[in-house]
Specification:
Helices cover 48% and strands 19% of the residues. The protein is α/β, with parallel strands linked by helices and 274 residues long. Helix 4 (67-81) crosses helix 5.
Length: 274
């Protein structure tokens, strides 16, 4: 029985990875991230536009340590704590990796999901992905995608909020206000799951993890030019907090507990319970 369970679990992971990254070998390589392959005279600030949306699944898989593991862990946690009442709000849903994982996890168990992103190109790609990969359980899962600013949207009947690498793009002075808004919309026992690029308190671990992150991107096939140009573009819009400041923000907002459930170098995932 144990061997059968392990085989089933591994098969599920492989099934998910295959489906979220490519519908076929050829399609995967058509979507390969080569946006910063050629030297540019001027580096514009990073935008989640249509050009990025086409290669985003490949980009984030190769750029964020533990990305697939994080998506799978989020779906596992949500499956365990979701009561079946209320809506799962995915803030900054990008191309819809989480609802695909949730569909695989929940199977015929019902859930309600609302993915929100301020990029119409990302929302369109998410809608296309979910239609392509989640037909098996569409009768059991209520999934919608909305284009909008999470700072301005009113959330109704929230059960769990998920923000995967999203708050880091919200101006630092507005993050605490947004988290407070999410906290107020949650019922007692509700959860906020947040994944972020982070800094460490000390200079040495911060620099070490930055180097390890760089080496991973090299291992994933990115050139020095690609890494340098992408970093310059994204540092214009992405401002990370330290691990300690993220935990402090969650605790001072009023959450009864805040913990890290995954950390890979300079990326961390948190869960806060109301």
């Amino acid at each position: 029985m144990i061997i059968k369970f392990i085989i089933f679990a591994l098969a599920s992971v492989v099934h998910f990875v295959y489906h979220i990254l490519s519908a076929s070998y050829d399609e995967y390589y058509r979507m390969k991230d080569e946006l910063y392959k050629d030297q540019r005279e001027r580096i514009e600030k990073f935008k989640f536009n249509e050009e990025v949306s086409r290669v985003f699944d490949d980009m984030i898989r190769r750029s964020v340590p533990g990305y697939i593991e994080n998506i799978l862990m989020c779906s596992d946690i949500i499956y365990e704590i979701y009561t079946g009442k209320g809506i799962l709000y995915d803030l900054g849903c990008s191309t819809g990796a989480l609802p695909i994982a949730l569909s695989e996890k929940f199977k015929e168990t019902a859930f309600q999901y609302s993915g929100i992103d301020n990029s119409k190109a990302m929302v369109d790609k998410a809608q296309n992905n979910i239609e392509k990969f989640s037909d098996d359980y569409k009768d059991h899962h209520k999934i919608e995608f909305v284009t909008g600013d999470i700072r301005e949207i009113d959330f109704n009947n929230a059960a769990i909020f998920i923000a995967s690498y999203t708050l880091q793009f919200v101006p630092p002075g507005e993050r605490e206000k947004l988290v407070k808004k999410l906290y107020c919309q949650l019922p007692p026992g509700g959860a906020f799951i947040m994944s972020e690029k982070v800094l460490e308190n000390g200079k040495l671990p911060t620099e070490l993890f930055k180097k390890m992150h760089y080496l991973q991107k090299r291992d994933q096939g990115y050139s020095d030019i690609e890494i340098s140009q992408k970093r310059e573009a994204i540092e214009k819009v992405l401002v990370p907090f330290t691990v300690e400041n993220n935990l402090k923000m969650l605790e001072e907002t009023g959450f009864s507990s805040a913990s890290i459930f995954l950390k890979k170098y300079n990326f961390a995932s948190f869960i806060a319970i109301k």
